[in-house]
Amino acid sequence: MTKTRANIDFPTEIVEEGKVKILVPELKAFIKLPSDYAPSKAPVFYNPVMELNRDIAVLALQTYQKMLNREISVCEPLASCGIRGIRFATEVKGVQKVLINDINEKAFQLARYNVQMNGLSKRVTVKNQDANFFLAHYGAPRKRFDAIDIDPFGSPVPYLDSAIRALRNGGLLALTATDMAPLCGVHPKACIRKYGGKPLRTEYCHELAVRLLAGCLATTAAKHDIGISVVFSHSTNHYIRIYATTKYGAKKADESIKNMGYILHCFNCFHRETTKDSLLSSQKKCSECNSKLNAAGPLWLGKISNREFCELMEKEVKQRKFKLEKRIGKILASTKSEIEAPITYYVIDKLCDALALPVPTTKKVVESLQKKGFQASLTHFNSKGIKTDASAAKIKEFLQRTYIGSMANLVKIGC
Ligand SMILES: C[S@@+](CC[C@H](N)C(=O)[O-])C[C@H]1O[C@@H](n2cnc3c(N)ncnc32)[C@H](O)[C@@H]1O
Ligand SMILES: [Zn+2]
User: Which has the closest alpha carbon to 75: 163, 179, 156?
Assistant: First the structure.
């Protein structure tokens, strides 16, 4: 249904997401060429693919509110049509007020309309300012928010300082990053510039991306004498997302900075290791094949999800009827299973490719490694990925043996 409303002079339609109805740009009206990316062509940004991102944001915020066990204030400084903030106010129990903001005048009009349409004018306030200017007004005691959700175009880094200042002690900060080309090492200079850490184009670059963003948050927060804990993170579709809580205090900042370090990777034999020594990071040779190791970082080597937080989110999703419930359940189960797993993962296709071997199922490799006494789990980062404490050399040996074994069986049965 194409309609225009007062102050909204472009084609719109109503969509339902979670428990809310929202007026959004009618995306198909803005596609002129087959190559056009509709969400960015519309006068106000709206991406239906981000429903999963918003669903998980609702679960995380509810989990956080339940852990605090009191009413909370929430802020979304880059809100577009307001769908995320309106969902927080409607679907998360214990949300006292939500402040949403967008620099785009049309987005502001649309968000204001949506707040009224959902009967939330008393609890949701809409502003039309630059996000940093807006957040700066809330950087003082008793003005700060319990939770801030930064969901920008590209990188959240330009908003980190002001978001940290506007977050209460113990607050929850949620960050989306969609600039995967810098974070995954396609544009390393841009990553170093923005995130202060070097990326690497490895098969586990999505985990590196999460760790680079978390590392950047930790070092930014430390400048304000604030420490962080990453309570949940995921890499989905074209973006990564992290949820971190903050704790005031120089000691807390020092503790969180201790999690910074480097991941060293051998492009010759797949070996990888971590170090907190910046000198070593640039000099070390591979212990398996003596090639020069390449370093990613400095980045976050600490936990990138918290068990209790994941379990509470799992409980939460079961109590709701999200369209994407199954997919979210899988992401949560997988993230939970990899909490204690070693840093980085191996992609079986890539190893088999290098060894010119057929690819066994990922599940089979995990089970066989576990039977041999290794720690092994699947990872949500990649459906062909395996997190294990077995070395690259051991996994390769295992893949070769499995192949020789299956060939011998075929010979035995006369194939
Ligand atoms: C990816 S969209 C937000 C999507 C929204 N959070 C959601 O869940 O659907 C990013 C928004 O940031 C807004 N924006 C860009 N630069 C800004 C700035 N400096 N201050 C405030 N808003 C800004 C854009 O107008 C756009 O609406
Ligand atoms: Zn090597």
Answer: 163
